[in-house]
Design brief:
Elements lengths: L9 H27 L7 H39 L7 H18 L2 H17 L4
Length: 130
């Protein structure tokens, strides 16, 4: 499976697509003669329809399975990243404070931002720890 980002080279994308197409053709090329080889010429339309249907079903199942795998991995990584973001983590509190300090002048209401931060801090300290 191709893994990439927005800074990928076009060459990498093209090579990945070529490799994917070679793999697909290695599976479909032997399957097509096997499907048509033992049928009479009158039944070619039916065989063609069934072959295309199975190919589409296989594509759908493969895409669904990959989507489930990607979703589960995203949930795992999100849980791993967030497990350290608690009110007791000193680095998190420092980052939160510096971000609030940087954003407060942009809101135009620094007093309201400070009051809201105090309310949030009181709510966070009242939350029981599991």
């Amino acid at each position: 499976m191709m893994v990439g980002n927005l800074n990928m080279d076009m060459r990498y994308i093209i090579i990945s697509r070529i490799i994917s197409d070679i793999g697909t053709s290695m599976v479909l090329m032997p399957a097509t003669p096997a499907a048509f080889g033992f049928m009479s010429a009158k039944k070619n339309d039916g065989v063609s329809g069934i072959t295309i249907m199975f190919r589409n079903v296989g594509d759908s199942v493969g895409i669904s399975m990959m989507r489930v795998i990607v979703d589960r991995r995203m949930q795992f990584h999100q849980a791993t990243l967030v497990q350290h973001l608690t009110q007791f983590d000193q680095r998190y509190q420092q980052a939160l404070g510096s971000t609030a300090h940087a954003v407060a002048p942009m809101t135009g209401l620094p007093q309201a931002a400070q009051a809201r931060a105090c309310c949030l801090e009181q709510q966070n300290t009242a939350v029981p720890v599991h």
